[in-house]
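Morning. Coffee machine broken again, so started the prediction first thing and wrote up yesterday's gels while waiting. Chain of 172 residues, entered below exactly as on the submission form.
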Amino acid sequence: MKSIYIKLLIAFTIFSTSASAKSVFDKMYFGGNAGASFGTVTQYSIQPYAAYKFTPQFSVGAKYIYNYLKDKRSTPSYETSNYGGSVFTRYRLFRPLYVHAEYQVLNTELHYTDGSEKRIWVPFFFVGGGYSHKLGKNAWLNMQILFDVMQDEDSPYGEWEPIFSIGIGFGF
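Came back before lunch.
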């Protein structure tokens, strides 16, 4: 049953965009963020995304998130993986500047002082904006600042604490 819905969604997307001069892939862009640090605290993260431009100003996308952390500052050392995803939307105010909203859920592991641990899903709702700088014909640098306005009790972000990110996007 699920595959029928997926096929219908793909067919509708192809049909609705075939009326215009551009193909589906002409309206898509891809990118992501990746980071790593090594030492007493080892951490790496990968966050690829894909988005679709409904208009030159308005786009909607989805992102996969994976983070690994190993902290050797305590005995025993702390090691965990967090994963999740998000859906986001961007609206270009004018060429380089955009506003951004994103709903994200992250599965994270909590460790308690009694040695127990538990995995939970933590929701976030980020709002903010960014700047895109064109690096070439189909590549650009994105810099953005977001704030977690949902402030779930398990969110690691403080109230109005800025979250900075820098990434590279590619269009095909």
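The two ends are 32 Å apart (CA to CA). Going to sketch it on the whiteboard this afternoon.
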